[in-house]
Write a structure and sequence with these properties.
4-stranded antiparallel sheet; alpha+beta; 2 helices; disordered N terminus; 8 strands
Length: about 180
């Protein structure tokens, strides 16, 4: 028994010392891996934030719209179609979203001078016409020098998205200011 105690007594501190050193080395490696993972995750979050900021930033010279506006969200994220009328200079983009009830439509207009009363009309491939929405244009206009904010509105049509041919922006008097294709 004395020899067993001597044998345990001689090896036990060495084993304990070696075991503790091994545990410390493992703990250091685990902390290092955790630190690298934390830094990697933080870097990824910064990169994703930067990419979102670039994607959601408004075009140059255009004020940032309210991010909660359904019209703005639709114009930014919907199926987009744009046109510029060479006669009037009016520029417009529609953002389209197919719905069970028809098509949700967002409209962004610039280079629109007033005063005017206007409307957005959806035209089907069969020639059916639906008034989507209407608005007043103040004398200062929209998306013009001195008043850079664009006109952004939205509404809906009972016409299904595949059946749409184009959209017309017209005065209440019937003068067509802009035609925007709904396909291709």
């Amino acid at each position: 028994m004395a020899s067993t105690q001597r044998h345990l007594g001689a090896e036990s501190p060495m084993r304990m010392h070696g075991g503790l050193l091994g545990e410390l080395a493992v703990a250091r490696r685990v902390r290092g891996v955790r630190r690298l993972c934390t830094l990697g995750a933080a870097g990824a979050m910064v990169l994703v934030g930067a990419l979102l900021a670039v994607r959601l930033a408004p075009p140059a010279g255009r004020p940032a719209p309210l991010p909660t506006s359904p019209a703005v969200q639709l114009v930014l994220w919907g199926e987009q179609h744009s046109a510029v009328d060479p006669r009037t200079g009016l520029a417009g983009t529609v953002g389209l979203e197919s719905k069970q009830w028809g098509t949700h439509i967002g409209l962004d207009l610039s280079r629109l001078t007033g005063p005017l009363k206007c409307s957005l009309i959806a035209v089907s491939k069969q020639g059916e016409r639906e008034n989507i929405t209407s608005w007043n244009v103040p004398a200062a206009g929209y998306g013009v020098p001195g008043h850079p904010e664009h006109l952004i509105v939205h509404g809906g049509a009972a016409i299904a998205l595949p059946d749409l041919d184009h959209f017309e922006v017209a005065t209440m008097g019937g003068d067509r200011l802009l035609s925007i294709p709904a396909q291709g």
